[in-house]
Amino acid sequence: MEQLIRFETIAEYNQAYQHETLHPLVTVIDLSRSPGPAKEGSKIYFGFYAIFLKDVKCGDLTYGRATYDYQEGTLVFIAPGQVVGVTRKPEVQPRGYVLAFHPDLIHGTSLGNHIHEYTFFGYQSNEALHISEREREIVLDCLDKIQGELMHFVDKHSRRLIVSNIELFLNYCVRFYDRQFTTREHVNKGILEQFEALLHAYLYSGKMADEGLPSVSQFAELLHLSPNYFGDLVKREMGVSAQEYIQSRLIEVAKEKLFDYSKSVSEVAYALGFRYPQHFTRLFKQKVGISPSEFRNLN
Q: For residues 84 and 89, what is the distance between their CA atoms, to the nearest angstrom?
C-alpha cells in the first residue's frame, strides 16, 4: 500500500528535511543536505507551491499517469492540492533545490492576483522545464536572493521583497518555457496535427449528441498532455486559445448542418452536443454576428 505524506505547512516540510524554518510561509532547501521524506513508492500531498530544481538524475516522479525521469537542470512546478508519487531509491542522494511558499504569503499582492497566469503549475511532470546552464545560473541567483532575505531579520520590507523575488523567478520561468516551446517547434507541430485530426474526426463522428461538446481536456487527455500545457501550446502556435479554436471549428460544422432544412435549429443544436438550444444560439451569434435562424434565412 502506498504511503501518503501530507505537508500542509512550510514548517512541516522544513522539519522533514531537517531544515531550519526562517519564515513560516516560505523556504529554500538544499536537497543535498538531507535525503528528505520521500521513500520509494510513497506519495506526497502539497498544501503549498513547490518548485524543484534537480541537478542530477535522482529517481522518477509521477503525476497522474505520466512519469518523468529527472535529468540535470530540470524545473518541476507543484501547485497546492497536488499529489505526486516518488520512486527514488533509498540509496540515491538527491541534489538540487526546492523553493516552497504558502498561498498565504502572496495573498493581496500582485503575484497573488496573477498566480493563475503561471499555467505551468498545472503541467504534468513529463512537461517539466529543461534549462540550459546559463538559465540554471539565473535560477540559482533568484533562489540566492530569496534565501538572502530569509536570512535577514524580518522587518516591514521582508514580505514585499521576498514576493517580488519569487515573481521575478516565475517570470524568468515564463521566458524559459517560451524558449522551450520554440526549440520543440517540430514536435509541437506534430502534436497540433494530431489534435486537428482528432477534432475533425470527433466533429464528424455523429457522437456529439450522446457524448457532448468537444472540450480542451478531452483532447489533452487523448494527446497525453495536461490541459494547461496543451492550451498554452495551441495558443502559442495558433494565436488563439484551444477553446476558441474548438469553438470556431464547431461553428463551421454548425453552418454546414444549418443548410439541412429538414432539421430545426434546435435539432442541429442537440446534434452538436448542446444540452440547451439557447446556448447554441448564443455562441453562434457571438462568433458569427447573427443568430442561426438569421444565417439560415440569409443563405
A: 16
